[in-house]
Amino acid sequence: MHAVSRRIACSGGIAVMLGAIVPAHAVAAPEQSSLLQKVAQMGERFRWEGNRLHLEASTGELRHRHGFSSAEIHELRAVLRRANDTSRASAPGMDEVVAAGRLLYLSHSDLTVGTAAALTAAAEVGPAALAAAWATFSAAFSGPLGFATAVLGGAFFADFAVKILQAVASGKGIGIYSQFGLPPLRVEVE
Question: What span is annotated as the signal peptide, if there is one (predicted)?
């Protein structure tokens, strides 16, 4: 597990590991998993405004109604800032390596009872909820999985939600791939 985490952390910029399968449990710390669960549970409170993801909840509501700690509220605000930061998704420089390939595989088990089950719950709510859950989930990654959510956009998350639900219904998992162009990621049911 440590080798996987180290390989992800060292991937940098937009360089990727070809053919690497990263287990979901290897990327989410317990406190991040708790935040992801809370974000998924309040999925209806997220909405798209243009290409920006917004949360329609006050700090008091997050704390008292949804059980967020002060640290979780701070982390959620940071996740939303990163999700909307399009400068994080700038084109790679000439000295960076760009490769197309599978970045992450989430099995049926991951999507139904594992760390990624919160992504499934968010997908059931809609694209904005999934975008918020993905921003939280992908915060553990550097490189292409850490792309700004705003760059991926609403259409990507609508497709992502459908593919998650298809995978769960058919007993399959999903593969997340890098690709050239926009959006820089694509999702396949596998």
Answer: 1-28
